[in-house]
Amino acid sequence: MDLRKWFTATPTAKTSTSTAVTEPSAGRGAPASSHDDDTCPDDLGENGPMQVKLSTYPTCLFGTGKRSFLHSWFQKRDWLEYSVKADAAFCYPCRKFSARCTTQIGQPQSRIRLDPAFRYKDKGKEISTLLHTEQIQRNRYYMSSLIDVVEFLVSNQLPLRGKIEAFDHLDEGGSGLFMSLVEFSIRKDPQLAQIVKTIPKNAIYTSHEIQNKLSAVMSSLVTDAIVKEIGDSWFTVKVDGTRDPTGMENVSIVVRYFDETTMDVTERLLVMTTANSGDAPTITNIILSELTKAGLNTSKILSQVYDGAAVMAGKCGGVQRLLQEKVGREIPYVHCLNHQLHLVLVHALSAEQAIQDFFRICNALYNFFRKPTVALQYKGDRLKRLLDQRWTAAKCVRNIRSEDEFCILWDTITASTTDTPVPAKWSRQVNKNLSEYVVEETTGVNVSDKMELRRLYFSALDHILGEMEARFSERNSKLAAAIAALDPENETFLDVKSIEPIMNLTNSTIVETECIVAKQFISRIKTEESQQMMTIRRLLTEQHKVLEAMPSVLSALKLAVTFGASTAMCENSFSVLKNVFTDNRRAMNHTRKAQLVHLAFERDLTKKLRNEWKDLLMRKFNTSTRRLQLF
Fold it and tell me: Where are the bilayer-spanning segments (predicted)?
């Protein structure tokens, strides 16, 4: 819109219906340059008014005199711009937000100028206020549908891509689950089907690069959520490793912490990374770098839990020692109790050849009946798979180590074998010369089956109890006693001297008066609820508000539940790794593999990307330059 007429024209008297002024009469002259009303010069500003300040401007005849544009007109008129090519002034908001580049003139307060002016005044807002709002909403709806498809596939450990990544070739097959689900969503959602028609062909966002970017952003949001849950709390680090079919060492890092939101202890997979070497310094650096990269404070590590391998448990050069040296303080190392129990059973049961033969035969039978040809014909009872991990407890083992328990077991066995005749054996006599001696070797003398089974029974139990006593002797340490003293069912509950070792790890103290009050309060609760066992977790969940009045006791209870015991969560993540890294997906890089495992394992957090985290996901995805405008 050429505004030179507005600056030089004399407005007519206002009427009740219009505030616009008429154009100058022919006697006053015409513009020096003219142009098509529907087109604007190409030297005007795109992102703001082009306010060109020249020493002299071209003159043109107006009436009987010559006039020109003045750069002083730019003062207090941030909407005004000047075209050198057209030698004309324009209103930037009118040009950008009006339907046509008109030459109609009028007062600045007229509605034709106020509407675009108000839009221009909002230039400090997001670009969504300057672009077409409806198209922005359509773009977001389309992007939301793609996010839902990716979230569904990664949560269920399903592959995403195939050979085809375009809508035009879906009928050819090999499109993969991602493209197939997108196409299915378009067919089932009429609104999405209409929106797809407005999406530019170069911004359909179905390529593998976009899929990788979305999964990477999702994984980072899940990590951020875990770090936010931890906050400034103490946490335990659990690390274990396994090799995938490509030979790459995968290191699973799990954190255990007390969640102040749910008031319960939580274990999360922080990251699954890869290690180029399996030595202690490399693994130590990986642990510290991943914790730091995620935003966690390494000085808040309460304990560390690994398996018993020398590279992890070494007292001088193991990971547990190097980690303490790098952090600069004591961080207790716990040899995974599940692994220790596994070793107890394996070593104890391997002491008797008869027991080894028994499990070997059972395993052979299991493998035999698993053969397809046999399994197809055999319809009888089936054996369960025998694993080396046969979990039990020392208390249970001690309870069954008695003559009465053996007799019950013997009667149960013999009752089921009465129909099977036992062949008679030739009886051998014991050498009389050995009657006064303890014989450690076999003499070839037959003893009854009951006597032999009794010997094996008590021998196996004695070996188990001996191994457990030797391997779990650390349970009698000061830290174990401190954790036991925080158990409401323990006799030493809230004993100040017993609790001190675990409090010293965090350089905090326990207040004796708070322990006395808390003990009385919890004792009263136990009396009122005599039928329910009181645990530390239940105490923290149900009585957290009351315990806030006793901060040192509350802190001690949180430390007790945060202290680590096993790496079972790491083992669980390896199961997800096996499901994700299938034979058909061996070509994926290790970064993407780790992200997919992370999202599948922390499925409850990944599901939040459907609704409450979706806007944040879009904003983080949109930080890079994108063809499809989302904000």
Answer: none
